[in-house]
Structure formats: C-alpha cells, structure tokens
Amino acid sequence: MAAYLIRRLWQMIPTLIGVVLLVFFLFKYFGGDPAEILGGQNATPEQIEAIRAQLGLDRPVIEQLWIFVKQILSFDWGRSWATSESVSHIFATRLPATLTVMVPILLLEVLLAIPFALAVAYVRGSLTDRAIMVLTTVALSISFLVYVIAGQYVFAFRLGWFPVQGWTDSFWTNLTVYSVLPVLLATMVSLAPQTRLYRSFFLDEIGQDYVRTARAKGLAERTILLKHVLRNALIPILTNIAVGLPSIFVGSFLIEVFFSIPGIGREVLLAVNRSDYPVIQAVTIYLAVLTMVINLLTDVLYKLVDPRVVLK
Asked: How many distinct structural domains can be found in the chain?
C-alpha cells in the first residue's frame, strides 16, 4: 500500500506540471490583455503600460512563469487585480460558505440515492419500478434553473418557509436557515440521475452468478441485496462519487449566484466577469489538485471496500 501511494503521488507531479503550463499559457495568450481590460476603454497607452508594469506583464514569459510557479508552491497568489484583496484571504473567507452548502448536498445525495436505488432494484420489473423510472426521466429533462425558480416561488414567496437570500457569520444559522432551500433543491435535482445510475449498478450485480448461488442456498432476496449486491456495487458507486465531487464545487456557482451566497462559486463568476486572472488561476489549480487527490483516495477506498482489489 505504501509503495502504491508513493508511486501515485510521484505520478501526480508530471500531471500537475502539465496543468500548470496549460493554465499559464491559456491565460497568457488566449485570455486577452488584462491591462487593457482593467484600464477600460478610456485609458491611454501610457496608463495601459503602467498597469502592465504594475502587474508584471511586461517581464519575459519565463520570468512570469517562474513567478506563477512560486505562487503555487507558496500558496500565495498575490492580490486580486480587481479588488486588491489577497487571493488567500478570498479563499479563507469564501470557502466556509461554499462548504456549508456543498457538504450537505453531497451527504444527502449519497445517503438518499443509494437506498432509493436499492429499493427500486428490489421491486425491479414492477409497476412501481417503471413509474419511478418515468419520473426520474422527466426530472432529468427539466433544467436546474426551473427547479430554482419554482422552488423560490413556492417555498419562499408563497409558503414563506425559507428565505431566498441572506447570510450571517453564524455557521448554525447559515446551515439551518439560509442554506436549507438551496440544499433541498440541489438534492432533489441530483436524486433522479443518481437513482437511475445506481439502480443500473445494482441490476448488473443481481445478474451475476454469485446471486443465483445465494438464491439456490435459500437466502432471502433482501439479505442478498444488502449483504452481497450492495457491497459489490460500491466500487462503481465510489467511482461515480469521485468523478462528481469536483463538479459539486463547479455546481456551486449557480447556487451561490441565485441565492446570493458569498462563496467561492460566486467569487469565481465575479472574477470571470472582471477578468481577475489571479483568482481564476488559483481556483483552476486547486480544482485540478483536488481532483487528483480524490482519485487517489478513491483507489484506496476500493481496497477497503473489496479486499480482493489489488493496487498496482
């Protein structure tokens, strides 16, 4: 296990180098001139050159790349070009709001989708199974924006159960008051595709020889599903969760904008609109590192879930 972890960590280095080079050169040559964007249409050439010198954009490309690498290694991304706020401070102050919303969504999505899918697989082929598949298909065809608009109108404006906007310094207040509606809507949206997918995983396992052997031994169908099918289906489920984890943070962009949550997602969208490259680059690199770490942890979980898995 230790040798495998060391080898995987070593393999991350060239991947991370490729991501760093890609991000740097994309923003360098395809993102427009930040000095012209920050200077505005009325800026003179002298003012633009002064902004470019202040941002260090007049230096050689190799020197700019080295500065970028040092920022990554030191976790010091400098200051936002638009607000002059430290990028590290932006992450420190916005990340808790994002986690307050995203972590409950992830937990509810996993804890609800797996038993729902297992229950549907248990009644496979029945009228209930077909009805649920139809409902999930309809739910998948509706945009998330429709859920947000309808949810805000029904639960906030008509029923008055939840506030549409607001955020405080109290974690408990944010978790139990302001994040309830976005978490509820996001979970409702994610249940349909996850239920369908996990159901297919369970049905694949139900068709295996070991299930027929268990039935021949007289085991109850519920015991077979909970003790054997569920455990063997956990590997593809873990893979799906690992793939979806980074996208949860990306999905926070829409949620934070529509519900005015001061998190990383809304800050990134503001940075894109203002061409605030330090913030965008930092988020891009961190998401890449997060994806690689999640993939590594998922491989380790494979071994814990199924001891037959061999890590090479």
From this structure: 2
Q: What is the rounded CA–CA span in Å between residue 112 and residue 187?
A: 9
- Amino acid identity of residue 60, one-letter, is P
Tokens standing for residue 3: 């040798």
Do 28 and 164 have their domain in common? no
Same domain, 66 and 95: no
Provide the 3-class DSSP secondary structure of residue 273: helix
pLDDT by 10s per residue, the chain, length 312: 667 677 777 777 888 888 888 888 877 777 666 666 666 667 777 777 777 777 777 777 788 788 888 878 777 777 777 777 888 888 888 888 888 888 888 888 888 888 888 888 888 878 888 888 888 888 878 877 888 888 888 888 888 888 888 888 888 888 888 888 888 888 888 888 888 888 888 888 887 888 888 888 888 777 888 778 888 888 888 887 877 777 666 667 778 888 888 888 788 888 877 777 788 888 888 888 888 888 778 777 777 766 666 566
Which residues constitute the domain of residue 168? Answer: 87-277+291-305
Question: Taking the chain, what is the end-to-end CA distance rounded to the nearest angstrom?
Answer: 9
Question: In whole angstroms, how far apart are CA 3 and each of 9, 14, 311, 312?
Answer: 10, 18, 10, 9
- Domain annotation covers residue 254: yes
Joined together, the tokens standing for residue 196 give 């369908």
Among candidate residues 253, 263, 103, the one with its CA nearest the CA of residue 167: 263
Q: Rounded to whole angstroms, how far apart are CA atoms 178 and 164?
A: 8
Going by the DSSP 8-state scheme, the letter that residue 86 receives in this structure is B
Domain co-membership, 102 together with 48: no
**Which one, of 109, 129, 133, 112, lies nearest residue 121 by Cα?**
129
Read off φ and ψ for residue 86, nearest 5 degrees.
-60, 135
Prediction pTM value? 0.76
Distances (CA, A) of 279 to 26, 118, 139, 302: 15, 42, 35, 35
Do 155 and 264 lie in one domain? The reply is yes
